[in-house]
Amino acid sequence: MTVLTTLIHEEDSQALRVHQEFVRRYGMDSGSLFKVELLIEGGLWSHYLGGRHKTHVKTKLRLTDGHNLRWASGAVIFNRVQNKQLAPLAKWTTQDGQSAAMDWHALLLSWLESVPCRVINPATPYGLSGVIYSDMRWALLARRAELPVRGFSVASDAGRLAGRCLGYRPEGVAGGVSLRGEEPVGGQEGMALGCGLVCLEDVSKEFVSVLVAGLNVVGDIPDGLKVKCVKLARIVNCELLQLWFAPGRRMVDWRFIMATPLPDFAGEGHLDAVVNYFGDQTRLRVSDR
């Protein structure tokens, strides 16, 4: 019986490694893999919203082999669906493609919200596998979690601070919006603060990567920061969350840099930790194979 279903995009090699390690450890029938592009291109969808407040949702998804995609109530979905231009829609004109992408976003969101099993990480209107925040928003949320963050200044006069902005962040990180010196603060947080710029405190460019998997925190950071990483993950409702820190000589000198609900599982012990976590959540043991 399949207990873990992985939903990925075609180029998501990081999540593919998680799926492959999971079925290697727990058996071929313990996990299934579906690529979002193939579900869109080859699936036959029927999605119904009913009831007085449109709270009754019913979805039928028939695959190309004729089988209907279903989940048991005790199953777990490893959700890696992203807000992006889907490959099957790229053949349409720009205007048609944008409209189709919005429709698919709404359908996938409603579908992932309605499935009878647990979804890790859950879909939201602002990110189909967890909310995508700007660096500044992450800093504000990290402060709520009592993590040490970089100092920043905000001002309506962007030119006054442009030369002092130090927007260091890890390269190639999915699920984030970088704020550089010449860029205005975007999104709701920028409007609320009435500002046009973020000026960040100078920190080390050597970052330490940390993975939160439920209550487990994997990464070479002070123990006093680990419980706060879990707190941040709970604030953003992500069971899987990757964080980056600029290290310091003492714990008070460490600085939170950013986070993403789309971990790359590249850090030491990260792949093993997430596979163990899924094994715990699906109540599987290696001996179950």
- In total, the number of strands is 14
Structural class category: alpha/beta
Shape: globular
Strand order in the largest sheet: 2-1-5-6
Largest sheet: 4 strands, parallel
The overall pLDDT, averaged over residues, is 79
> What amount of the residues lies in strands?
15-25%
User: How much helix is in the residues?
Assistant: 25-40%
Number of helices: 8
C-alpha termini separation: 11 Å
Radius of gyration: 21 Å
* SSE arrangement, N to C: EHEHEEEHEEHEHEHEEEHEEH
Low-pLDDT stretches are: 174-197
Task: Please provide a written account of the structure.
By secondary structure, this protein is an alpha/beta fold. Helix content is 30%, strand content 22%. It is built from eight helices and 14 strands. The strands form five sheets. It has a four-stranded parallel β-sheet. α1 (13-26) packs across α8.
Helix/strand layout:
Layout: E1 4-8, H1 13-26, E2 31-35, H2 36-42, E3 44-50, E4 56-62, E5 76-79, H3 94-114, E6 118-120, E7 133-134, H4 135-144, E8 152-154, H5 158-161, E9 176-177, H6 187-193, E10 198-200, E11 208-213, E12 216-218, H7 223-235, E13 240-246, E14 255-260, H8 270-281
Parallel strand pairs: 1-2, 1-5, 5-6, 7-9
Antiparallel strand pairs: 3-4, 8-10, 11-12, 11-13, 13-14
Helix pairs in contact: 1-8
